[in-house]
Design brief:
With 244 residues, the protein is mainly alpha-helical. It has 3 domains: 2-47, no CATH class; 53-125, no CATH class; 155-235. It has 9 helices and 3 strands. The chain has helices spanning 2-18, 30-37, 62-66, 70-74, 111-116, 124-145, 155-187, 194-219, 229-235; strands spanning 83-86, 93-101, 104-107. It has a 3-stranded antiparallel β-sheet with strand order 1-2-3.
Length: 244
């Protein structure tokens, strides 16, 4: 029986030795450091590099996390839902690194971590690939933004825009005149009543708007009856025959 136990534990020790890492921890002894430098495994279990919990290279920052809702945080990729130890609360606890907000947090594993399981601990090369993709997309967006930010329009472009505005205002004035004429036509011969009064009011308003637009196009200024007192003092009183 003793021989069987010794054989069992010998196999277990051999298996454990085979599973030792080839990375030495910061406090490893000189023997294990030398073995690792030679490409061998560490000799002592306590000298092996322990797993270090690191966030993904593209882990969202504080500003992004605080700007998302609880549902949006839960929908973030699984690699962000790693555990984080919170020692500033009572009792101390492991919480999700992204499922938290103002006055609330979620114990780890959160629902997303439970759903995706081992995908939470994404291999570093996969996380780096995601980071490179995000950097490429950010560069593309910045290049697109440079086409518009800080680019002042040329004189020709500004002139073209103003010409379009003038043309549109002229067309609008003509349309308002047509609407006023049509409303006058409908009111002709109609019995007195509310409908006639409404049509008359609309026709007067449309015709007044048309005159105001034409005045702006002709003079570059507001009609005098629409000016403030300060503007009247600057531009003078209305002239006889002017549009008002």
């Amino acid at each position: 029986m003793a021989d069987e136990n010794e054989e069992f534990w010998a196999e277990e020790r051999a298996r454990a030795a085979a599973e030792r890492g080839r990375q030495a921890g910061p406090s490893a002894c000189g023997t294990c450091r030398a073995r690792v430098e030679a490409g061998q495994q560490v000799k002592h279990d306590e000298c092996a590099q322990r797993a270090t919990l690191l966030q993904a290279p593209d882990h969202p920052g504080y500003e992004l996390i605080t700007g998302l809702s609880e549902q949006e945080l839960a929908a973030l990729p699984a690699r962000f839902h790693v555990p984080a130890f919170m020692d500033t609360c009572t009792p101390k606890a492991w919480v999700c690194a992204v499922c938290w907000g103002d006055g609330w947090c979620t114990r780890w594993p959160c629902a997303t971590a439970l759903e995706h399981g081992t995908q939470v601990f994404t291999p570093e090369h996969d996380a780096e690939q995601h980071q490179k993709q995000q950097a490429a997309e950010l560069a593309r967006l910045r290049a697109e933004l440079e086409k518009y930010v800080g680019k002042e329009p040329t004189v020709a472009e500004e002139t073209q825009h103003l010409n379009r505005c003038f043309t549109a205002l002229g067309v609008l004035a003509g349309r308002l005149e047509e609407m006023a004429t049509e409303q006058d036509r409908r009111a002709d011969g109609a019995p007195l009543g509310v409908l006639v009064a409404v049509n008359d009011a609309r026709a007067r308003a449309n015709r007044s708007a048309a005159r105001a637009i034409k005045a702006v196009l002709n003079t570059g200024y507001l009609p005098h009856d629409l000016m403030t007192d300060a503007e009247l003092e600057q531009h003078g009183p209305a002239e006889d025959g002017g549009a008002a």
